[in-house]
Design goal:
Helices cover 39% and strands 14% of the residues. With 286 residues, it is of the alpha/beta class. It binds zinc ion (ZN).
């Protein structure tokens, strides 16, 4: 059974604010990078899901409208890009409500999907799923089904699942793509893996994954921005520049080859393609 085409998901944010210092303002560069990605999606005829940060939407509501006008799904990436573990449930609810309300005000349509900053729904923050259901989200795409140093939940189902919540209600979870190799699940769905793996290796993993599960790919507009670290006023150590910048030079080329090979679809299209199984939260044993 094939689960293609891949879900193309893009987290719309500004690298210095989202990764380096949460107190920095969103810069013009983030809008330019997002418009560059919109042009690329037009050229490759791919519809995607774009998880937009509230702070970005506040500064660039026109770009959010352009995303929708191009036929992409607009979803929510929270407001301030603060990891969930650093917030109380009340603070988290306020953060997601603020960004969801703002996006709905700009677009006039309901926002149903959410992705956490830095994939920060982990074992200790699973309460976030209850909060997201309370805020009115229908699906979440934040969990990496693997044990990793900074994120991920080992043993989480690799297929999308309707999670029955402990406090009643449910939410659909669409996990990020992982690839089984050497007895481990590797998060090959995007980011550094996609920038550093040779194109043929990424495509091999995607093809293998899609025989058993959907491939949820993710990236950020700044990953297409080759000269960012040379040009931004923020001073970033060379090691961080290397880790965050390596592979950007050929990222656009890789992306084009990837969607030329497989095409792509937005999250809602994949999630509505079949009735996914139910899953009770407490059935996950650790
Ligand atoms: Zn992010």
């Amino acid at each position: 059974m094939s689960y293609g085409p891949p879900v193309i998901s893009i987290d719309v944010e500004d690298w210095p604010q989202s990764t380096w210092d949460r107190s920095l303002p969103i810069t013009e560069r983030a809008a330019e990078n997002t418009r560059r990605v919109l042009q690329l999606l037009r050229e490759t005829e791919v519809r995607a899901t774009m998880f937009v940060l509230g702070k970005f939407a506040e500064r660039f509501p026109q770009v959010v409208k352009e995303i929708q006008a191009d036929g992409h799904e607009v979803a929510c990436h929270g407001h301030g890009h603060l990891e969930i573990g650093r917030q109380s449930p009340e603070e988290f609810l306020a953060d997601v409500r603020r960004s969801k309300d703002l996006l709905e005000q700009i677009l006039g349509t309901p926002i149903t999907g959410y992705r956490a900053p830095d994939f920060s729904i982990v074992q200790d923050t699973l309460w976030a799923l209850d909060v997201l259901a309370e805020a009115g989200f229908e699906y979440d795409s934040s969990i990496v089904p693997a044990r990793l140093p900074r994120y991920g939940i080992a043993g989480w189902p690799v297929l999308p699942t309707r999670v029955r919540l402990n406090q009643g209600g449910s939410i659909l979870e669409a996990p990020l793509a992982t690839f089984q190799a050497l007895g481990r699940n590797l998060p090959v769905g995007g980011g550094g893996y996609h920038r550093l793996l040779p194109g043929f290796a990424s495509r091999y993993c995607a093809r293998r994954i899609m025989t058993d599960a959907p491939f949820v790919f993710y990236c950020h507009p700044y990953e297409f921005d080759v000269y960012e670290f040379r040009e931004i006023p923020v001073r970033v150590p060379l090691t961080v520049q290397f880790y965050q910048g390596a592979g950007r030079r050929w990222f656009e080329q890789r992306f084009r080859a990837f969607v030329r090979c497989f095409g792509g679809q937005p999250m809602y299209a994949m999630l509505s393609s079949q009735p996914w199984q139910e899953f009770q939260l407490c059935s996950l044993n650790h």
